[in-house]
């Protein structure tokens, strides 16, 4: 009897351990190395990805999610209420989600090199032109707006794209855009959920 129980316990224990490790892997994503995280944050800042979502993208996504998924009436959803909903997403949470979305596709070295280009004069001009009207007035690209990009900036950008970091960005750019939009949608939905719970509003999530 003891031997039979031992034979049963051995594979059962292995299965339990394996299942526990699988759940741990799902619930606790791999930590981002500090140097990698810092490099990605530099890239997100230089490209204005974080500020673009905070100032522009999230508010639009919250309005859409609130109306389409949570039953809010668009005509009654004021800018002040959207701001109150968005306040349920902290800057740290936004940064963490964006870092996680980028870490598998951009190495620390690539992120630093891309950030350096975006921080250069040609890069600043290109970013400012591409994001015109979507950044807060406090952003240096608005308050101290650089001149519009010209042929020299285009040439600098094309030269950057043939570098290893530029080629990598060109290869994964479309995927990263989808990941950023996914982060935006997820956080918008989460913000509305927290707002509804906090205000004890009817949960009409569809």
Q: Could you say how many structural domains there are in total?
A: 2
Helix content: over 70%
- Helical stretch tally: 10
Which structural class matches the secondary elements? mainly alpha
The rounded distance between the terminal residues' Cα atoms is 54 Å
Order of helices and strands: HHHHHHHHHH
Low-confidence stretches: 4-9, 11-29
Mean pLDDT: 88
3D shape: globular
Strand percentage = under 5%
Briefly characterize the structure:
The protein is mostly helical and 206 residues long. The chain has helices spanning 2-27, 34-46, 49-68, 79-86, 91-102, 108-119, 121-130, 140-143, 151-161, 164-199.
Task: Tag the structure with descriptive keywords.
mainly alpha, 2 domains, 74% helix, globular
Describe the 3D structure.
The protein has 2 domains: 1-30; 32-199, no CATH class. Helix content is 74%, strand content 0%. The protein has helices at residues 2-27, 34-46, 49-68, 79-86, 91-102, 108-119, 121-130, 140-143, 151-161, 164-199. α3 (49-68) packs across α10. The protein is globular and about 55 Å long. The protein starts with a helix and ends in a 7-residue tail after the last helix. 28% of the residues are buried.
């Amino acid at each position: 009897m003891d031997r039979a129980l031992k034979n049963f316990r051995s594979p059962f224990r292995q299965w339990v351990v394996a299942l526990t490790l699988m759940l741990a892997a799902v619930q606790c994503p791999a930590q981002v190395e500090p140097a990698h995280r810092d490099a990605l944050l530099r890239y997100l800042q230089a490209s204005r990805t974080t500020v673009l979502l905070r100032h522009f993208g999230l508010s639009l996504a919250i309005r859409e999610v609130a109306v389409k998924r949570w039953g809010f009436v668009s005509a009654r959803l004021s800018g002040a209420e959207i701001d109150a909903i968005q306040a349920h997403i902290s800057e740290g949470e936004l940064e963490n989600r964006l870092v996680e979305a980028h870490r598998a596709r951009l190495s620390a070295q690539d992120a630093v090199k891309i950030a350096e280009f975006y921080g250069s004069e040609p890069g600043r001009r290109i970013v400012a032109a591409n994001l015109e009207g979507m950044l807060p007035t406090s952003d240096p690209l608005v308050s101290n707006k650089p001149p519009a990009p010209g042929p020299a900036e285009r040439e600098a950008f094309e030269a950057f794209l043939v570098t290893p970091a530029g080629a990598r960005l060109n290869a994964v750019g479309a995927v990263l855009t989808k990941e950023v939009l996914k982060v935006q949608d997820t956080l918008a939905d989460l913000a509305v959920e927290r707002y509804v719970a906090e205000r004890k509003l009817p949960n009409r999530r569809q």
